[in-house]
């Protein structure tokens, strides 16, 4: 398959002005409001020295007015863990355009808050470890599931490098291989794996809550295979099951043994319309205290 080589280009924002504000000051205010929301973690965090125990985070990617407060819990957990070498963002390719597991071709991603550099060295190492990964700008051009996280990352960590990966119709074994390759990279440096996913889509509130907790139980058990089978067997419309399964596969390889459900609510809890809702959950995954990013 032909793919786009890495270029010294900047990926322009595709959803500024729709999923989040396009004006820098309004965007800063929206991020601060997400942290300080009654559903948020109360305060805008500053990153600490941290212990490096955080392996990954599952966080939602809807418009900030809906999922921003839930996602803010994930960034607060990242801040407490300390500044990482890089944040690997595992997102959903909703349109299915381009490679099934696609690295960004750009040297940086722009938002109204500035440009986040792409860690191209990490990207090249991942290409060498996993033959399923391709460089493909098309997969990222219009996709929101990665982009919406970057202003939050910029607000907490400023210029920390990112590695955006868009996943579409990849097989479950391919997603597992990706997780195993990411675990190899995470043993050599401090990386946070940010898996971007909303939960159930357009279900009545009571159905969404039941199904979402079934899926989240598998995430909390650090069980990628269980998550994959539960979502399929129960018909749960969780868009980011593959990115989350990849993160969980890496977490297991890195000795993760603890999770924390940081926040859960639905769009109905925000809007008051509970007829057809989308679920938003944020879960942090940590490795054992005696692990330093290596298998035991």
Describe this protein's structure.
With 296 residues, the chain is of the alpha/beta class. The chain has one domain (10-287): LigB-like (Protocatechuate 4,5-dioxygenase, Chain B, 3-Layer(aba) Sandwich), CATH 3.40.830. It contains 10 helices and 12 strands. It has helices spanning 24-36, 64-81, 120-129, 144-147, 150-157, 172-186, 205-220, 224-234, 241-253, 267-271, and strands spanning 10-11, 54-59, 86-92, 101-103, 108-111, 114-117, 134-135, 162-167, 191-196, 201-203, 256-266, 277-287. The strands form 2 sheets. Strands 2, 3, 4, 7, 8, 9, 10, 11 and 12 form a 9-stranded mixed sheet that branches. Strands 1-5-6 form a 3-stranded mixed sheet. Strand 5 (108-111) and strand 6 (114-117) form a beta hairpin. Helix 3 (120-129) packs across helix 6, helix 7 packs antiparallel against helix 8 (224-234) and helix 8 packs antiparallel against helix 9 (241-253). It is globular and about 45 Å long. Mean pLDDT is 93; it is low at 290-296.
């Amino acid at each position: 398959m032909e793919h786009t080589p890495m270029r010294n280009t900047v990926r322009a924002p595709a959803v500024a002005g729709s999923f989040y504000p396009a004006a820098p000051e309004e965007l800063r205010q929206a991020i601060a409001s997400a942290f300080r929301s009654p559903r948020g973690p109360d305060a805008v965090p500053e990153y600490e020295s941290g212990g490096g125990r955080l392996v990954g985070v599952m966080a939602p990617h809807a418009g900030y007015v809906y999922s921003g407060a839930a996602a803010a819990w994930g960034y607060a957990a990242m801040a407490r863990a300390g500044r990482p070498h890089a944040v690997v963002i595992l997102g959903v390719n909703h349109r299915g355009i381009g490679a099934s597991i696609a690295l960004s071709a750009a040297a940086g991603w722009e938002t109204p808050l500035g440009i986040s550099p792409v860690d191209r060295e990490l990207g090249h190492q991942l290409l060498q470890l996993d033959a399923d990964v391709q460089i493909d700008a098309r997969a990222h051009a219009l996709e929101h599931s990665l982009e919406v996280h970057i202003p939050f990352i910029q607000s907490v960590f400023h210029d920390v490098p990112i590695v955006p990966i868009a996943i579409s119709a990849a097989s479950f074994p391919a997603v597992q291989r990706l997780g195993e390759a990411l675990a190899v990279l995470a043993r050599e440096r401090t990386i946070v794996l940010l898996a971007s996913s909303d939960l159930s889509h357009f279900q009545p509130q009571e159905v969404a809550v039941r199904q979402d907790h079934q899926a989240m139980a598998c995430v909390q058990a650090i069980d990628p295979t269980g998550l994959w089978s539960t979502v399929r067997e129960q018909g749960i419309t969780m868009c980011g099951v593959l990115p989350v399964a990849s993160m969980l596969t890496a977490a297991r390889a890195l000795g993760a043994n603890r999770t924390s459900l940081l926040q859960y609510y639905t769009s109905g809890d925000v809007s008051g319309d509970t007829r057809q809702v989308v679920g938003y959950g944020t879960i942090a995954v940590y490795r054992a205290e005696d692990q330093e990013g290596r298998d035991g």
